Amino acid sequence: MKLAGLFVTRRTAFKVSGLGAIAIAATGGLPALADSASVEKTNIQTVKDFCLAWADDPPDADKMVDQFMTDDCLVRFGDKVGPVTGRSAAAALFRSFLANGERYDLKILETFARGPVVVNSRTDSTLKGTRSTNPTPVVGVFILRDGKIREWSDYA
User: Fold this and answer.
1) Which CB contacts under 8 angstroms, 24+ apart, belong to 72-80?
2) Which CATH code fits 39-155?
3) How far apart are CA 33 and CA 85, in angstroms?
């Protein structure tokens, strides 16, 4: 087979793939995959816990930001609310949604992670007392760093 000016034989391809396997084994590449899966699982749990915190009675915006967000976090709720950066701005934004004594049920339907990115499909509903209203389909995209949410974008 001719490839970009190089003549590639099965023997050459076999040698190169063998060298690649040796390099992966020498660098510990396979355990890195296991570590990646563990990080992804931890990131998914962090996002689940964060989503559950919106239903606390009452939700505590400052506690949510301190527990789940990085110092330089960015929060974007679609295109109708301007993005905010930093913990204090995120806490103020969260408080604006919680101002009327409302809570939110973020019912996660599906979640997946790829590296530091966690995506979930949810139905978000407003909780007022015992009533649940305004169910809205939402996709949340979270980027985590060191176990905390660095970016959160919601799309309804």
Assistant:
1) 72/150, 73/148, 73/149, 73/150, 73/151, 73/152, 74/150, 74/151, 74/152, 75/151, 75/152, 75/153, 76/151, 76/152, 76/153, 76/154, 77/153, 77/154, 78/153, 78/154, 78/155, 78/156
2) 3.10.450.50
3) 32
Checking if the pLDDT of 22 tops 60, the result is no
For tokens 């076999």, what's the residue?
A: 14
Q: Which amino acid is at 115?
A: G
Q: What is the distance between the alpha carbons of residues 16 and 91, in angstroms, rounded to a whole number?
A: 53
So where are the chain's domains? 39-155
Q: What share of the chain is helix, strand, coil (3-state, %, to 5)?
A: 40, 40, 20
- Residue showing tokens 């976090």: 73
Give the distance from CA 44 to its chain's centroid: 7
Task: Dump pLDDT digits (tens) for 52-71.
Answer: 999 998 899 999 999 999 99
